[in-house]
Design brief:
Elements (H helix, E strand, L loop, with lengths): L1 H49 L3 H4 L4 H20 L5 H25 L6 H19 L17 H9 L5 H47 L1
Length: 215
């Protein structure tokens, strides 16, 4: 009888230890997420300053250069994807895919209820700001292009074709501030999810520890 009573008590102890470990790990995850979104705040600050105009864009920043370089390949991939759909979509495809790739990743993360969802949304806003510089540069064509030739400037060709070259600044402003709003919203959402997880697991830890003391 002593052994039979000891076994259920041992199982309860083991289950309690597992619950404490899971809650503790979840709290650690929440802390890491908070640190990550603090880092994104810094990236956001750099991006907002660097993408505000063409002159600022040309100032060096290793973090922004890192993100930009990754999405430069996605931008070029967009041209390849839309190559068969006519000249306009071929030119537009680079900037379109640069923004849509992280946005589709965000939608997939939302569908699968993944906690990483705010990050691809942040990248969507980041790339909108990035594209805004390209649009703003259309009348000037001062940016150094991958191919090196001014005539290959996507947004110069698009806006010239549409008769909207004089509206480049307005379109760039709209794109830039939309990116600002999306980035800010994604960071706020990330902080909210991390804080909610931390509070939930902290409460579970306190409840479990209280239960162990009383038993």
């Amino acid at each position: 009888m002593m052994e039979e009573r000891a076994e259920p008590q041992s199982n309860r102890q083991h289950a309690s230890d597992n619950a404490l470990l899971k809650s503790s790990n979840a709290k650690s995850t929440a802390v890491v997420e908070i640190i990550f979104y603090l880092f994104l705040c810094y990236v956001f600050y750099l991006a907002a300053a660097r993408f505000s105009d063409v002159a600022s864009y040309r100032q060096p920043s290793m973090i922004i250069f890192f993100f930009h370089s990754i999405f430069l390949f996605i931008h070029e991939g967009g041209h390849f994807l839309f190559k068969l759909f006519g000249r306009t979509l071929y030119i537009l495809g680079g900037s379109f895919w640069q923004v849509m790739f992280p946005f589709l990743s965000f939608l997939i993360a939302i569908k699968n209820r993944q906690r990483i969802a705010p990050f691809p949304l942040f990248l969507t806003g980041f790339n909108l700001m990035d594209v805004s510089v390209y649009i703003r540069d259309a009348p000037l064509r001062q940016l150094q292009l991958l191919g090196g030739h001014r005539d290959w400037h996507d947004w110069f060709n698009l806006l010239s074709q549409w008769g909207m070259l004089d509206d480049a600044g307005t379109l760039a402003d709209i794109t830039y501030y939309l990116g600002i709003v999306i980035c800010a919203g994604s960071i706020i959402g990330g902080f909210y999810l991390a804080a909610a997880l931390f509070r939930e697991k902290d409460l579970e830890l306190k409840t479990e520890r209280t239960s162990r003391v009383t038993t």
